[in-house]
Each structure stands twice: as C-alpha cells, then as structure tokens.
Amino acid sequence: MGKLSFWFCICILVALGLPNAAKVGAEDKIEFYELKKGNISVKLTNLGASIVSLEVPHKSGKPIDIVLGYDTVKEYQADKNYFGSVVGRVSNRIANGEFKLNGKVYKLATNDGKNTLHGGPKGYSHVVWKVTKYENSGNAPFIVFTHRSNDGEEGFPGALKVVVTYTLVAEGQLTVFMKAKSLDDKVSPVSLGQHTYWNLGGHNSGDILEEKLRIMGQFITPVDENSIPTGQLMYARGTAYDFTEPQLNGIGKRIHLLPTPAGYDINYQLDDFDPAGKVRPAAIVENEKSGLRLELSTDAPGLQFYTGNLIKDVKGKGGFTYKTHAGFCLMTQWFPNFVNNPTFPQALVEKGKVYKHHMAFNFTRI
C-alpha cells in the first residue's frame, strides 16, 4: 500500500462508499478519510492524525488544494517537516531535552540538537492513530482520532488518552478539538499542535510572501541562539514581527529586517487569553490572487508563526517541488519550553484534569 498514491487510495475508499463504520478501529494500519460539506473537502490520514489536503473554491470557481503534502504513504513516513500532522506530547521545543516537575528531573529523547522538538524523534506525528468515530456525511461530518500515549513514551511521565476531532461544522469552517486525559496518578506537560502548512494560492502556486497576515498578538517570546524562549516578552509593534495593524501586511514585507532573514519562526502571545477556555480570534490571512481569506480562532495562549524556512526542494503532491516559504504554519499552542518557565501559562495534566485545545479555521472570500 505504501507505493499507492494518496489519491488512488482515497478513490478506492470513495468507490467503496466510505460507510460510517468502515475503517474504524483498525490498529497500526494507515488509512485515508474524507470529510465533505458543500464546496469544502478535507482529506485526512490516521498517520499523525494529519490533514492531507483541503480543497476550497478559487475565486474563479475552480477548487484548489491549499495544504502542502505528499503523494505517498512512504513519503509521509519519512517526512521531517511535520506536513499536516498533530504534534506532541508537547509541541515546539523543550530546552536541553529535560524538565523538572515535582522535584524530579525528566530526561527526554532529543531530535533538535540538544532540544526536544514536537515530542521527540517519534512524537505523535509519527504515530498511527486509531479512528474511533467517523461520519463522512450529514450536517456536521467529523472524524475522531485517538492514541494511548504510554508512561515513559519519549521520556514523558504518565499515561494519557489523547483525542483529536476534526469537524466540518459549517460550509467553509473546519474545527479541531484536542484533549488529553491522564490514565494514572502522574503529572505530565501537554501541548498539542496542528502543524499544517497553508498556501491560500494553492499548494503548488509558489511562495506565500505576498499573502497578507494579521496576528492578534502584540508580544512575542524572543528566543536565544537555540530557538529557546528567553523567558521575556518583547513588544512587537514597530518591529519586523509586527502583524498587529488592522490593515493586513504582506508576510514578506519586513522579512529582510529579521535577525535571521531566513524567515519567521516565533511564538506570539495572543491577546485576551482566558484560562477558562474562551475561543477568540487569533489570525487572519488573505490571498488576493485566489480571493481566499482564512480566519483562525483558538483558546490557546500562543501561536507559532512559521514560514517554512527549512523547506528546500521537497517533492510534494503531483510532483510539484516545494521551495523555501512554500507554506506557512499558524500553530496555536502553549508557549515553547513552558514547562521550564513558570512565568508562562502552564498546561499540566494529572488525574482528574483534562487538557483541552480548540481551533477553528474559517475559509471565506475576500
């Protein structure tokens, strides 16, 4: 099956009718799924609980796929860019691959120099998730991915049940709801991220530097030479990191002014964070050529804005070669290295406490 293209696999599933109970409960077998409502179609796989594609109409009326990805299972298995995947147990970086919790130091598997990135060498992005519920039609098509994360997995303490639900709640709106529940008495940090690369001109349309972006966050968490937050907050207005203006700015407008002009890879403190779980606007992106507008909302305190700086001649879907800045990520999250910085918002899961993380992606016309 690894030699078949995603699209061939999906065609087979569609031909079989994609019944609601089909493919549910399979263990360690990579499968593909589709949610469709009106003129939006989302294709997913249980490898990494990943978004494979998302098709919406171009202003010409023709559907375009605005998600970067691959054609084959083998390419996804070898992926180092986290295309479309859910990352965790803790998204982003943990300094020196360790943290101290309740007097005990935990040593983690490292995969970013001395740091742990997106959960380690085999984080959730490389796990084959179990599909426990799936409705591909009706008023609100949805799919539920679950994963049992064992105590000691990549060095993290405690066993967790992790659940990710994708739902097309309305035409043009995709919601993502993540939660994690402790299965024992141990305390563990949790910060799940959804690491899709978007290009509102189409995945094969070139770079995203002319797309216009607004972020509802006035402060960033500046980083050291190892991309670890210093623990301080920096006011972004008037700097190369400023995307706060009501008039949307082009992503590439100030990129040459960055300390590392390769591109953006920084966490924003989003405005109006409410620990009780209030969902509020986080970012808006517009592409004038396609006429598409993406509005992102979340209840998370932070947002990692990344411009695909490390994508270099990657063979993508349809044989198209992705270059640097071929897509952008807007990954809502708890701040990088929060477990080593008590001044940052904390996300610790223990018995009787459930981690919850909401996102809503709303696609409209400009």
From TrEMBL:
GO terms for biological process: galactose catabolic process via UDP-galactose, Leloir pathway; glucose metabolic process. Beta-D-galactose binds at N92, R93, H195, T196, Y197, D265. It comes from the Eukaryota. Its EC number is 5.1.3.3. It catalyses: alpha-D-glucose = beta-D-glucose. Keywords: Carbohydrate metabolism, Isomerase, Signal. One of its GO terms (molecular function) is aldose 1-epimerase activity. Pathway: Carbohydrate metabolism; hexose metabolism. Residues 1-17 form the signal peptide. Pfam families: Aldose_epim (PF01263). It is an enzyme of class 5 (isomerase). Belongs to the aldose epimerase family. This is Aldose 1-epimerase. It comes from Cuscuta australis.
